[in-house]
Amino acid sequence: MIKLLSHLSHLEITTPDVEESVRFYTEQVGLRESGRENGVVYLRSWGDYYHYSLAISEGPEPGLASMAWRTTSAEALEEAARRVAAKGVDVVWSEQGFHHGRSFRFSGPWGHPMELFWEVDKYAGQGDLASIFPDRPERRSRHAVAPRQLDHITVAASDVRGFADWYSEVLGFRIMAHTVLDEAPVTVFTVITTNEKSHDLGIVLDGSSRPGRINHFAFWVDTREDLLQAADVLMENGTDIEYGPSIHGIGEQNFLYFRDPSTMRVEVNTGGYRNYVPDWEPRVWTPSTGSNSIYRNSRMPMSMTESFPPAPEPSATEEGVHPATREALLNPYARHGQA
Q: Which of 31, 86, 92, 138 meets the CB 3.0–4.6 Å disulfide criterion with 125?
């Protein structure tokens, strides 16, 4: 069976103030602006092989405009479109995007916009941006955070396993692991992947009625020391750390979470395993076994359950319920030692 998808290529997020977000990602995170077109600003990490990995456009609130994946071939692009359409989902073709060729867009069953393409312009830094490493698209950034590349996106859906099963069946994602609550048979998190990483797409449980929401997206740095320095520099320059640094049990990545000016959650991570097993059976974790923080010596802040755009009503997975019911209803896996 043909392998359809190669990797996550880029994301487009929305924000009420594009210029403020652009300043944050260039000055605080260390991305570099690579172009503007039709009101959209395109940013790149120094290790991106294509022209950009993050696009920022104007919107009334923080949210996901699109997540884009490169296919393995032109034939795979056509086959992916056929499979999506066969599920009764509208497929909208475009002849050209910003530095990539023909693509199609669709919204999956839980409302998340996705774009697939094959042809793409490769990036090669010139002059002062050229690297002494022939394999690198650009010299390493002098910035203190400066991620190498985009790593993954985590979205929110009302049916975590249903989401994973649909994308596995239709587009060939491998399902790698689930988190099930200790207290009840409820799956609150699943990771799926197109390649050897533990995940390039995560799904968290969404108790709201709003479709198509995003929980966070993540950039990759090379070492744990880079991640710790990122935390240091961000704090020194006025960006609060939301969660971490620590290590996820699922995926085994070192992690660090913070927010951009629109309140969108951003992760910096590193480490983790590589898995090439073609017939991998998904593992089941619980919070008490360290699915979120393997050390099990701290509690996950309630703010981590917020997704974007905000839900129009309080839900069982986000802040906003009556204080008298909060401890009983919300986030039972946030107890100290369970993470």
A: 138
The answer to whether the beta carbons of residues 99 and 55 sit under 8 Å apart is no
| pLDDT, tens digit, 9 for 90 and up, residues 40-56 | 999 999 999 999 999 99
Q: Apex CA 51: angle with CA 81 and CA 190, to 5°?
A: 50
Report the relative pairing of strands 213-220 and 149-157 from DSSP bridges. Answer: antiparallel
pLDDT tens digits for 203-262? 999 988 899 999 999 999 999 999 999 999 999 999 999 999 999 999 999 999 999 999
Determine the Cα–Cα distance for residues 186 and 326; give it in Å rounded to an integer: 18
CA dist 110 and 192 (Å) reads: 16
Question: 113: which residues sit within 8 A by CB, 6+ positions away?
Answer: 64, 65, 66, 67, 105, 106, 107, 212
Candidates 226, 231, 228; CA nearest to 28 is 231
Q: Which residue has the higher pLDDT, 312 or 89?
A: 89
In this structure, the chain runs to a length of: 339
